[in-house]
Write a structure and sequence with these properties.
The protein is mainly beta. The protein contains four helices and 17 strands.
Length: 331
C-alpha cells in the first residue's frame, strides 16, 4: 500500500526528479489564524486548513509541531506541517452566500477536499545544482495579503479549469466566465531565506521572492536572503460548477465568487505555511536525486482522511448565509 500511495503522491512527477507533490485532506474549516492573529478566537475571516492535528489558535513558535501532532491529513505521514488559505464563497444575486466545496486534484485519489502541496528543488524539469536547505522547527511564512490592490505577484494566480488537468492560462483575477471544471487557486511561496529568522513581524520579510510564475525556475537569491529553501506551492480545486447558472450571477454580469474576507476581485488571495516535518525527512527529500529512494513514509488516503480536529469556533459556515462568517458589518 505504501508504494501505491507514494505513486499517487508523486502524481505528475518524473521519478528522476526530486520534488514532492502530494495531497492533504481538509483538517478543519474555521476562523483561526495563528500566524496573523495568534491567540485570537475567532479570527477575522474563515480559513480552510490542512496538515497536522497540532493546529490551534496559538501555535507557539518555540514548540516543534511534529512533536505535538499525532496525525496528519497529508499523504506523507512524516509531514505535520500546516497549510491554510481563505475560503471561497458564491455570492448570489439576492446577496446571500454559499460555501464553494473543494475536490481532489488529478491523480490524488479520493482525498477529502483539501489542497495539493508541492516542495520543489528547482523546477519540474531539473533538480538544479544548488543545496536546498529544509526549513527548521518553528519556521513559518505567508504569501500575499488581503489588502492587496493589484495582481503583481506572479505566484498568486487562478486557472479556469476546463477539466481537472487544465493548468493554463493563469489570471491574477477570478475568472470572469463560468468554468466547466471549477477554479484552481494557486499560491507559490518565496524560496530565499535570510538564514537567521524563523519568522518576521509581517511573516514575509525573512523571505525574498524571486518567483517568476508557474513552476518555472525562480531567480537567484540575493545576498540579503542567501539561503535557498524548497519552493512551496499550494493548489486548491474549488468546485464552482454548481454555481455556473449565470441567471444567479450579479445582474451586471460580473463574476460572483468572493474570498471569505469579501474580496470579489481576487488580488487579496494569500496563503500561510507553518513547518512541521518530522526530524530530517524533508532534508532527505531535498538531498535526494530520486524521490523513490529517499525512504519518506507515506499513508493511505483513507488514513489521511480520518485525521481531524475539533472546532474551536462553532458557527454556521454552510447553507445559505446572509453574511460571510465574521463579516456582519458588510451587510
Amino acid at each position: 500500500m505504501k508504494g501505491s500511495s507514494l505513486a499517487l503522491a508523486l502524481g505528475l512527477a518524473a521519478p528522476s526528479q526530486a520534488y514532492l507533490r502530494f495531497g492533504c485532506a481538509t483538517l478543519s474549516v474555521q476562523r483561526l489564524d495563528p500566524l496573523v492573529e495568534p491567540g485570537v478566537i475567532p479570527s477575522a475571516h474563515l480559513h480552510q486548513i490542512v496538515g497536522g492535528n497540532g493546529f490551534n489558535a496559538t501555535m507557539d513558535p518555540t514548540t516543534d509541531v511534529s512533536q505535538r501532532a499525532t496525525c496528519t491529513t497529508c499523504t506523507f505521514s512524516e509531514d505535520f506541517s500546516n497549510y491554510w488559505t481563505a475560503v471561497l464563497y458564491f455570492k448570489a444575486r439576492n446577496g446571500t452566500y454559499k460555501r464553494v466545496p473543494q475536490y481532489p486534484n488529478a491523480l490524488l485519489g479520493n482525498i477529502k477536499g483539501g489542497m495539493t502541496v508541492y516542495y520543489i528543488q528547482e523546477s519540474f524539469n531539473s533538480n538544479g545544482n544548488q543545496k536546498i536547505t529544509a526549513f527548521k522547527p518553528g519556521f513559518r511564512m505567508t504569501v500575499g495579503t488581503p489588502q492587496s490592490k493589484d495582481g503583481t505577484n506572479p505566484g498568486l494566480r487562478y486557472t479556469c479549469l476546463q477539466d481537472v488537468m487544465t493548468r493554463f492560462p493563469e489570471t491574477a483575477e477570478f475568472p470572469k466566465q463560468p468554468c466547466p471544471a471549477g477554479i484552481m487557486a494557486i499560491h507559490h511561496f518565496p524560496a530565499c531565506w535570510d538564514g537567521k529568522n524563523l519568522d518576521s513581524p509581517n511573516h514575509q520579510d525573512h523571505m525574498y521572492n524571486t518567483n517568476r510564475g508557474g513552476f518555472t525556475t525562480a531567480g537567484p537569491c540575493p545576498a540579503s536572503h542567501p539561503v535557498r529553501v524548497p519552493q512551496v506551492a499550494f493548489e486548491t480545486m474549488w468546485d464552482t460548477t454548481p454555481f455556473n447558472n449565470k441567471a444567479e450571477w450579479p445582474a451586471d454580469g460580473s463574476q460572483p465568487f468572493v474570498w471569505s474576507y469579501e474580496d470579489s476581485v481576487g488580488y487579496g488571495t494569500h496563503g500561510d505555511y507553518l513547518f512541521g516535518w518530522k526530524g530530517d525527512a524533508l532534508q532527505r527529500a531535498m538531498d535526494s536525486k530520486s524521490l523513490l529512494s529517499n525512504g519518506i513514509a507515506t499513508q493511505t488516503v483513507d488514513k489521511a482522511n480520518q485525521c481531524t480536529i475539533k472546532n474551536t469556533v462553532n458557527e454556521e459556515i454552510d447553507g445559505w448565509l446572509t453574511s460571510l462568517p465574521g463579516r456582519h458589518m458588510d451587510m
